[in-house]
Amino acid sequence: MTNEDIQNPPVDVEHELVQGDVSDDTVSTQPSELDQLKSENALYLDRLARMQAEFENFRKRSQREQQEFRDYALTDFLKQLLPILDSLDRALKVEDISTTDFRSGVELIDRQFHDVLTRLGVEPIAAQGQPFDPSLHQAIQMVESTEVPDHQVIDELQRGYRLRDRVLRAAMVRVAQNPNK
Q1: Kind and range of the H or E element at 74?
Q2: Tens digits of per-residue pLDDT, 14-29?
Q3: Which residue from 123, 129, 122, 117 is spatially nearest to 156, judged by alpha carbons?
Q4: Among 22, 59, 76, 96, which is least packed by CB within 10 angstroms?
């Protein structure tokens, strides 16, 4: 063997692979990987479809529950008002009643009504003698007065109410305006 034969050995054409050709081992594994990826894809698509269906069912159920809540939200409140209505009906059925007895009956009904409102978290807004607060009071008249401080509520014409932190109705008031200021 010459030096040239050692540097460039003879090429065995039958067993030599051209670069870029795929061996038999690689070809046999590709279809199984492809099948595996297809099955995973199908599994994920199935999961997605199920999750979308579950979400749609959840959305419909939530809408139905919200509608039922709206339909029956007043039930407890109305049940608490019925005894007051009964008292008013009884008061109207009584004939030949003195003014004093009628007034005491109306005061009792008024107390019942306020008790129900208190149990529900409704409370009156303090107005008379308080500084004017536009978030709680609605000024319908400014009255010149030197007897009370400027911007103080002089008179409450209609009581205001709040439910916890939210104003249901602002109190209608008359407010002092000091002409010396």
Answers
A1: none
A2: 555 555 555 555 545 5
A3: 129
A4: 96
